[in-house]
Each structure stands twice: as structure tokens, then as C-alpha cells.
Task: structure prediction
Amino acid sequence: MTMQLTGVSDAPVGVATSPAVRVLLADGQSLVRAGFRVLLEAREHISVVGEAANGEEAVAAAHRLRPDVALIDATLPGLDSVQATHQISSQSPVAVILLIASQDDEHSLPALRAGATGLLLKDTQPAELVRAVETLARGDALLSPGLTRRLIAELASRPEPASPSPSLIAELTAREREVVALVGHGLGNDAIAERLVVTPATAKTHVSRAMVKLDAHTRAALVVFAYETGLVRPRTDTATPTNQPLAIA
Result:
């Protein structure tokens, strides 16, 4: 059965239809952009509102069109993709997905620090790309398990916390500090809920409140905070495995 998204007469009385997810495509190759457009617009609730062939165009289009999600290739010509991500994220609440070639892509961690809320491999299955766009449009974050492990490994390699912030830690309740530490270990909300014997909704609430208090716009920022403030100690975390995606579920 096909979902009806247009036409008031087609919807039950009192039920509003969901607005389309607005997407900006930024890639140096027109054929690649065309392929993404066809794939995404096959879903009735996703609309590609603009395209950009280089970093400068991507920043200008994001500012002008205000899409929900910007899909940016890591090797975008012109303005570097990390710089473009920073400018887009700082100007508007656009969720940026960076498309990377491999788990070891040098753009990954700088892009997260610049404000990217999603990292996706270019060989991702089409259905996963659509799911990623939908996930970020809801205000969540998305990062693969492999990239979660890489982020944690880089932070864990530091001999000591980089910049302890007792005043920021004091803003958190004891439970929120515990939750941030678990995020630092790479646990998702379901795993946190199991560890603390609470519901996933309660775990998500604790994570969300901690993000607000710390002005952390992405879950990756919480991982960085956990290490840099000493809530997670490198000497005990290098052996902590994780198969959890760095995503708000």
C-alpha cells in the first residue's frame, strides 16, 4: 500500500501528513548526484531540493535552501569538505552526512569535530543511505561501529585527559556522568539501558539532557568530552570492545 503524502482529502480527519525530508546533494560528479537523486526521491517523503558541485556551492545552497540534511562527498572539489561542514553547521541546523571512501578516511574525525552528525561509507547499501537520511532528519546522529572504535582508539591513545573541566562535570547529575562515561565506552542507548537497568527511553533522556548541558551537538562530542575530562580513563578503555553504532536510537 502506497503512503499518501499529498491531498488533504486522502488523509483521515485530524491527522496531519508528515512534511517531506529536504535534502541537499553535494558531489563533484553530476552522474553521482543524479544517482542519489533518483534513489532518494523514490521515497515519497524525501525531496532533493538542491545540488552542489563544489564546497562553495554547498555552503551557499545550504544557507539559501535550509535543507534538513546535506549529503556531502568527502572529496568535494573547491572548499574542503570539512570546512564546508563547519560553515554549514555553524550557519543553520542542517544535519550533515559525510560520504567517505573507507573507515580510515582522513576526513572522518575532523568532520565530526566540524559538526557532521553522520558518516557513511560510499559502498553503503541504498536502503542504508535512505535510513541514514531519515535518521538525521529526525535529529539523531549516525556513525558506524568501525568509526566508533576508531574515534575511541584515538582518544584512548592519549596518555592523560587533554583538558579537564571540573565546572562542566559539576553541571551533570551523578547519573548523567555515569551515562556520559558509558557513551565514552561506545555504548548505544539500548546497551546503556541494560547496564543501568532502566528503559531505553530513560537512557535516551539522560543522554539528551547531558548533551544539552554540555552544548554537545553530536554523540561523538560526548565521547570526546568523556575522555578529555577524565570520566573515561584511557588505560582502562583501550581493551573495551564495542559493536554499538554511535547513534541516538
